[in-house]
Design goal:
By secondary structure, the chain is of the alpha+beta class. It has a domain of about 140 residues. It is built from 7 helices and 13 strands. Strands 1, 6, 7, 8, 9, 11, 12 and 13 form an 8-stranded mixed beta sheet that branches. The longest helix is centred in the first third of the chain and has 17 residues.
Length: about 210
């Protein structure tokens, strides 16, 4: 037993080190909506150009965060935004344990089913930041749809009702990259964000997901 004890200590130490060095992936929400970093508020634009503002008076919530890129003459509703750690909720919206993996071909991020209730309570235009090992990697908006929205240089996490036939034990969102000129498309994370890509390649292997 005395000979076995040092071996057990070594085994526990190795397991602890392995867990310590595993990637920790979390998603946080912002406390409040952060304005777009590009453009001027649409209210200011209309005032400068002496435009009719009756629609703004009737639907103030619709235009509250819209901006106008005066250089490109483009309206932006969901735009890229800057943030500080203090702008985020103290606890993660989605914890590391709730994230299962990422299908790179479909840009689909899979969670445990228990997160469905969280998404059902999301506010309109919820902004998120995805962290890997406490480092912010991507940020954008969680949306149920954006076909008529004007978005620019930001990620859109598009979520819908769970497809029980496709993935009965999970819930997913599709991560798209929004661009006014090119519309929304599937990001090439392997090229543009290798840190994101590699972390999820490892997570997929750990959970035996998407293996050929």
């Amino acid at each position: 037993m005395k000979k076995l004890f040092p071996f057990l200590l070594l085994l526990i130490s190795l397991i602890s080190c392995q867990k310590k060095h595993q990637d920790v992936i979390e998603i946080y929400l912002t406390k409040e909506r952060i304005p777009n970093k590009v453009g001027i508020p649409i209210q200011e634009y209309w005032t400068l150009n002496k435009m009719e503002q009756k629609e703004l008076e009737f639907h103030p919530d619709k235009f509250e965060f819209m901006t106008v890129d005066t250089i490109q003459d483009q309206l932006i509703e969901l735009g890229a935004f800057n943030f500080e750690i203090a702008d985020l909720e103290q606890s993660p919206f989605i914890t590391n344990e709730e994230i299962l993996g990422f299908d790179n071909e479909r840009a689909e991020l899979f969670f445990k089913n228990q997160v469905i209730a969280k998404f059902s309570k999301l506010k309109y235009n919820s902004q998120f930041v995805l962290f890997i090992n406490k480092k912010p990697i991507i940020n954008g908006y969680l949306e149920t749809g954006f076909s008529s929205r004007r978005f620019n240089e930001t990620y859109i996490g598009l979520y819908t009702k769970p497809n029980k036939e496709k993935e009965p034990d999970s819930f997913s969102i599709t991560l798209l990259y929004g661009d006014i000129e090119n519309k929304a498309g599937i990001p090439d994370f392997q090229t543009t964000n290798p840190e994101f890509y590699q972390a999820f390649q490892t997570r997929n292997q750990e959970n035996n997901l998407f293996q050929q």
